[in-house]
Design goal:
Length: 120
């Protein structure tokens, strides 16, 4: 759910990607489309009665020192239909934990936005 905007301009009405956002989105799409390299360690066999581990998918972490930049990056990610989670200092601990869990276990959550301090 989008947060209230901290910007003085109505971004929904006046949105235009910058060249940096366009380059970032091109990198995101290229990374997510690229085949994964073979695993460095062998995958352990599934144990009887336990589900097999999920198939590996490419994922992307986007760090920024400025949370306002993360606010801006959310718009083209949504427009592209990419599922993402966010982790920043304004989030309570349970929300941070849920974001990390979703990113690590849900194959459809392909992008994580992180503030530099919180993600470090």
């Amino acid at each position: 759910m989008p947060r209230a905007s901290r910007f003085s301009v109505d971004l929904d009405r006046h949105w235009r990607n910058s060249s940096k956002i366009d380059a970032l989105m091109a990198d995101v799409h290229a990374t997510l489309a690229a085949p994964l390299p073979p695993p460095m360690l062998p995958t352990p066999p599934a144990k009887p009665g336990k589900p097999a581990p999920p198939a590996a998918v490419a994922k992307v972490c986007i760090f920024s020192q400025w949370t306002a930049m993360l606010d801006l990056v959310e718009r083209p990610l949504r427009a592209a239909g990419l599922r993402f989670v966010r982790l920043d200092g304004s989030m309570p601990l349970p929300a941070r934990d849920a974001a990390l869990r979703s990113f690590s276990t849900d194959a459809s959550t392909r992008v994580m936005l992180l503030s530099l301090k919180s993600g470090g």
